[in-house]
């Protein structure tokens, strides 16, 4: 074989090997081809980080604050969810960057440094997106068995929670924010809490916005839900301001069926608000609801 042909053959083998190291996966913006089983990954989305942690993926660096204690070990100097530190990121030299949600607007800028994917989870059928992301990450990082086990656990927990809430009445999901109140329905940001487990809404037709529909204490009393599910935004982001418990500690809320029955349930706002769709945050939310409703007579 001539040197020219040998060189061509070697180049072909190298090209094939390089191609074999890539995999095409589904993302929030469509199919993307990225390195298979990357050894160094920068993560700017807490829902994604929640899943990678659950799968046992190694080589991860995340933002300077993950907001969630169970993900704090991944905190690094690569910036925040809204403002990446491009100098630090360049020094890290990740093989893959995962963005999404709050960092989705930075995808184009991040892609100049390394292959970048938008793994936002949002909108209708959120838990279907959770299942899909688990499968995707499983294939990407050779964690298929772990992904399948987590998916099965999710399905089991949904079934158990659905059984716990059955015939226990209506619920209203409230977000407190330093004294202000917003309500969410089945068509909103946290609508899966109603749709996935068959939990009836106390009020139908609430405005479908990311921040919910602004409501008053009187609105809640008029709706008079059997259950009030509460998210505390201040606690979720580690901010300063009145707590959810303090906000709802008043005679108007006390006059509702939920308060009289002891059916005000405080969810882990950080997990839902910051890492929405993450498998660990979702399982925890389901467990809190299952336990609260299951303990009710």
UniProtKB/TrEMBL annotation:
The alphabetized list of GO BP terms reads: iron coordination entity transport
InterPro entries given for it?
ABC_transptr_periplasmic_BD, Bact_iron-sidero_bind, FatB
**PANTHER family, alphabetized:** IRON III DICITRATE-BINDING PERIPLASMIC PROTEIN (PTHR30532), PETROBACTIN-BINDING PROTEIN YCLQ (PTHR30532:SF28)
**GO cellular component terms, A-Z:** outer membrane-bounded periplasmic space
Return the PROSITE patterns for the record. Answer: FE_B12_PBP
Q: Tell me what organism the protein belongs to.
A: Celeribacter ethanolicus
Principal subcellular localization: other
Gene3D superfamilies of this UniProt entry?
Nitrogenase molybdenum iron protein domain (3.40.50.1980)
Where is this gene product found? Cell envelope
| Keywords, comma-separated and alphabetical | Ion transport, Iron, Iron transport, Signal, Transport
**Which family does the record claim for this protein?**
Belongs to the bacterial solute-binding protein 8 family.
| Signal peptide (UniProt feature, chain positions) | 1-20
Domain named Fe/B12 periplasmic-binding: residues: 40-297
Kindly provide the name given to this protein in its UniProt entry.
Answer: Iron ABC transporter substrate-binding protein
Q: Which domain of life is it from?
A: Bacteria
Q: Give yes or no: UniProt keyword Transport.
A: yes
């Amino acid at each position: 074989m001539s040197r020219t042909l040998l060189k061509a053959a070697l180049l072909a083998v190298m090209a094939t090997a390089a191609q074999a190291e890539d995999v095409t996966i589904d993302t929030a913006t469509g199919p993307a081809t990225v390195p298979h089983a990357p050894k160094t990954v920068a993560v700017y989305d807490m829902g994604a980080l929640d899943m990678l942690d659950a799968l046992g993926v190694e080589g991860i660096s995340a933002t300077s604050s993950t907001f969630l204690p169970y993900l704090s070990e991944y905190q690094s100097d690569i910036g925040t969810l809204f403002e990446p530190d491009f100098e630090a990121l360049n020094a890290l030299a990740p093989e893959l960057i995962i963005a999404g949600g709050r960092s989705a607007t930075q995808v184009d800028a991040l892609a100049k440094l390394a292959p970048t994917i938008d793994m936002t989870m949002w909108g209708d059928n959120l838990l279907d997106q959770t299942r899909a992301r688990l499968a995707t990450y499983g294939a990407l990082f050779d964690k298929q068995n772990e992904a399948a086990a987590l998916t099965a656990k999710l399905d089991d927990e949904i079934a158990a929670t659905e059984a716990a809430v059955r015939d226990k009445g209506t619920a209203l999901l409230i977000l407190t924010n330093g004294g202000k109140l917003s309500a969410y329905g089945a068509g909103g940001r946290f609508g899966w809490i109603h749709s996935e487990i068959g939990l009836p809404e106390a009020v139908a037709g609430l405005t479908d916005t990311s921040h919910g529909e602004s409501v008053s204490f009187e609105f809640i009393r008029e709706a008079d839900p059997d259950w009030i599910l509460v998210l505390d935004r201040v606690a979720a982001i580690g901010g300063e301001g009145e707590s959810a418990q303090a906000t709802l500690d008043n005679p108007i809320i006390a006059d509702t069926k939920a308060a009289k029955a002891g059916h005000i349930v405080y969810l882990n706002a950080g997990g839902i608000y910051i890492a929405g769709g993450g498998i660990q945050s979702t399982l925890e939310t389901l467990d809190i609801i299952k336990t609260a409703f299951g303990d009710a007579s």
